[in-house]
Write a structure and sequence with these properties.
mainly alpha, 1 helix, about 95% helix, about 0% strand, transmembrane helix, membrane, transmembrane, NAD synthetase
Length: about 40
């Protein structure tokens, strides 16, 4: 049971990290496109 909980926690944390990093990349990409258009 403990192993399952650990795996669940690890997968949840990993998914959260991937989601956040993806959002950051998306936002930085959008801001980069906006800056290029201004120039």
């Amino acid at each position: 049971m403990e192993n399952v909980a650990w795996l669940d926690l690890a997968l949840g944390g990993l998914a959260l990290v991937i989601l956040i990093s993806g959002l950051v990349m998306l936002l930085s990409g959008v801001s980069a496109l906006g800056n290029n258009k201004d120039k």
